[in-house]
Amino acid sequence: MARRIGPVETPPLPRQQFPVTERWTYLNHAGVSPLPIAAVEALDGYARGAAAGGSMTGDARATRAEEVRAGAARLLGVPTGDVAFVKNTTEGLGFVANGLAWEPGDRVVVPELEFPSTLYPWLGLRDLGVVVDVVPTEGPGRCIPVSAFAATMAAGVAPKVVATSWVQFGRGWRCDLAALARTCHDAGALLCADVIQGLGVVPAELEAWGVDFAMADAHKWLLGPEGIGVLYVRGSCLDRLRPLEPGWNSVAHREQWDNLELVWDEGARRLEGGSHNFAGICALGASLDLLAGAGVEEVWRHVDALCERACAGLADARATVLSDRSEAGRSAIVTFALDGHDPEVVRQHLLDAGIVSSARGGGIRIAPHGYNTAEEIDHLVAAVVRLAGH
Question: Most buried of the four, 55, 122, 289, 388, by CB within 10 Å?
Fold first, then answer.
């Protein structure tokens, strides 16, 4: 029988906001999050307003977009003017990778076992003569220490960019971005962080940590829809990026239609180009408000306790936890393996029991959020125990 780790208090995110709980024990927020009711209502409100008023709703939409930009900036821990809306993390990475000026022989350093979209934008620069070097892991579930980044950085010319996920997608190890930023800057390198697997569940202070670029989709821990995301560009780095999609929304004089001069907006908005995805922004804003009302610190405390409970129960079920669960390296992702059982078979067994997870990182990846409960974690453990035959 799995031992229990203390009672986990009432979830900080209200369960009534998440209709998914009526059918599923949903533990796949590292994949695609279910939308809360607040986001659904915001989408509906946007659509009804657009239907009833068309362009007459333009001022209200623009005002709401700036409110959401400010809310995203608070969550990132950065100035509002340093945040741009993008359609997804990949676009944000592309704006950085392709917006910087490159010369043959420039280096980029990335860690092993990265999500493809965190790697491919840099590999795409090879035809410009850019060298991409990989930081090896000590084991698939182990957090890569900053010293390993430093060793790879020192093994050639100083890199122009070090690109990494804050939280690795498969097994969830978390990178010490503050320490890595110091190491990068000491070597004259910029730090670009894909923060999609941490933002919204782990507190972030990206400006204070020294991160130069960061990006995240809305559809994971931010509890928003697909097709909208945010990009952070440190103010001191903004002029190093060539805007790739210049348009009327990129310039300081965006309402002066007869002014054909190209004077960039003073902030990251210069990267936005054309009209916004207002439907996505409205839904994201509702989800950000929900997270802000709960407090990300409280969300993290709750989710971390759920993950610890899961690890204890899985150990009793003789499953092997593959994730780094050290204080500095752990995240809201727990990946485990059950000896003698194919991960896809385990995933389907859990789904048959009403539990949504993913087969990732050589095992089963679970990723609870701030509305999940201790009882749901116990339900997961019981299903694993049944499959293992204990």
Answer: 122
- Same-domain check for residues 185 and 318: no
Structural domain count, the chain: 2
pLDDT in tens, 325-347: 999 999 999 999 999 999 999 99
Residues 6+ apart with CB under 8 A from 136: 112, 148, 152
Average pLDDT over residues 294-308: 98
pLDDT in tens, 82-119: 999 999 999 999 999 999 999 999 999 999 989 999 99
Residue 23: give the domain boundaries: 15-35+295-388
C-alpha distances out from residue 119 to 40, 99, 109, 264, Å: 33, 16, 10, 29
What residues have CB less than 8 Å from 63, skipping those under 6 apart? none
* Structural domain contains residue 7: no
- DSSP β-ladder status, 107-111 and 131-135: parallel
Q: Are residues 235 and 318 in the same domain?
A: no
CATH code of the domain in which 198 resides: 3.40.640.10
* Burial per residue of 265-281, b for 16 or more beta-carbon CB atoms within 10 angstroms, e otherwise: bebbbbbbbeebbbbbb
pLDDT at 283: 98
Read off the pLDDT band of 139 (50, 70, 90). low
Q: CATH number for the domain including 310? A: 3.90.1150.10
CA distance 389 to 383: 10
Which among 130, 135, 174 has a CA at the least distance from the CA of 151?
A: 135
Q: Which amino acid is at 144?
A: I
Domain closes at, from 265, 293, 321: 293
Whether pLDDT at 375 is above 70:
yes
Question: Do 87 and 232 lie in a common domain?
Answer: yes
Domain closes at, from 293, 328, 354: 293
Confidence of residue 353 (pLDDT cuts 50, 70, 90): very high
Summarize pLDDT for 278-291 with one digit per residue, the tens: 999 999 999 999 99
Other beta carbons within 10 Å of 149 = 26
Predicted pLDDT at 389: 81
11 burial level (CB within 10 Å; 0-12, 13-18, 19+): buried
In a domain, 1, yes or no: no
Query: On the CB side of 369, how many CA atoms lie within 13 Å of its CA?
Result: 37
